[in-house]
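Tutorial, part two.
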Amino acid sequence: MKPSLTLTLCRFLLVFTASAALASPPSDARPALREAAEKFSTELRRERISGLPTVTQMERLGPLMTAGLRGAIGKARELQAAQMREAPDEKPDWIEGDLFSSSFEGVTSWELGEVFAAPTTDGLVKVRQTYSEAGQSPVKWTDTLVFKNDGKTWLLDDILLGGEWAFKPGASLRDGLPGGGRESADHRSPDGRWLVTFQRDGEDVMRVSIADKGVPAKAQVLFGKDGETCPMPTWVVWNPESNLLALRLGDSPRFTRTLVFRLEGARWLPVGLPVFYAKERATMEKNGFRRSDDLVDAAYWSDERTLVVQFFASYTKEDEGDGFAKLVSVRIDESGKAAVVGAVDAPPQE
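Running the prediction step on this input gives:
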């Protein structure tokens, strides 16, 4: 499937806005970021890791990662063990290949590249990677390490996979772990209990429903029960515990939204998301600006209750323009109330 106009436009605008934000990174953050990247990369490549890191390997790598990334890897290990118990003759997920780079075969040499840092963004460090095999030309590519600062040090939170080939784990390390995968076709939840079904008519999504695999006749409609439709792409992002899900819908090429549902008993209840940058929107409209784009795309779950949303809004007034390109973290409490707990400028993408 070719990328939609919505995603292409969003990717372009995020690059433009975020690149401007990162044009002059503070010099005092760069040495600490480079040191963190050097330390993580050295520990990661100390031995070949195929599939999920072992418990022993995580004893070395875990202290260099955020709690969210450690939790996603731990959840993947739990799900993998459950798959092996339920289907011992089948190959489980996350059992082989290098999950920490674009290359399934792994990395034979690496070199740190540019370092990006700014007050309102995650730290980014490019890594030039190489895989060499006797008798063949070496394969070269660049991945990007994404770091968060916990107030004391920089910790790895994700790896953006820059290899330009189809057979790689995903767009990022998080993308392939519980809480990060975008499911745009019929699928089961990470814990295997729930079946999500998409009903389509050409390029339009007519209905998205969810059913307990034990009682499939009692499917619940998440979208489309009132005859509403939306264009593709549409996707679902599950949290690691399979009790929260985000459903991204396209209203048009320039407007998208995300619906969130939480599991209570055997029913999926809607969660109301807050309006992002409401005061700024009101100010823009008061001054005669018109919204020309409004993208609210579910990106990933940074932990079991925090959804990261890729948000972009632009406004125009004759030949003037302004807008926001943000990654917004939304925390959903046990009662189903959602609140914004953080936002950073969207990082540059290639």
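The radius of gyration is 21 Å. In part three we will examine how such features are distributed along the chain.
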